[in-house]
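Sequence in, structure out.
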Amino acid sequence: MCALLAQGQGTFKNLDFEQANIVPFNGEINPSLIDASEALPYWTVYTGNKQDNYVVYDTYAVGSPAVSIHDYKSTLTPLQGSYSVGLQHSKGGNPKTASIGQTGILPKDINSIIFYAVNPDDIKVTFSGQEIPITWLGNYKNADIVGGDISNYAGQSGELPFTHLGAPILEISSIDNIYYSNDAIPESSNYIIILLFHIGYLLKKSLIKR
């Protein structure tokens, strides 16, 4: 827990998506499309290999790849705080992924990256093009807590994308509450270590807000 409190967060920002500002995209009347740079500050939105300037708000795409943001008015309940991000691969036609990425410098001396997710098996995490294998760590309310070993890239600069790779059925994955830890990823059966991971993070977050 002390190590968790002492760690830096590098230059990555808005890792819990709480800096969202809901602004209609390009003056659109359709309230389901909002400006990506306002909804997800510091993040870049992609569908396939194309950068998008908008995200979907509080709803789903029907068959198309989409990045979305959801608040308390959505049927997709935020995993923590006021906002969570949805990632949805295309269904039918030429398959396309949906992803968000941010370029920055990882904290020094970190070992792992942790985040909350729904349907995490459909999410691929990479750093500078290298996949970070994800392990299930536990549960938090309606979400899974998952994480991966990122120690080989500590202190390095690169892009950190979260990508929805698709599923046999039309399915959306959601992510939230991304953070780093100095501790190594524990075995899934070690619930005491998992609990310390989570308690340490919540305590650190509380101290930062003060």
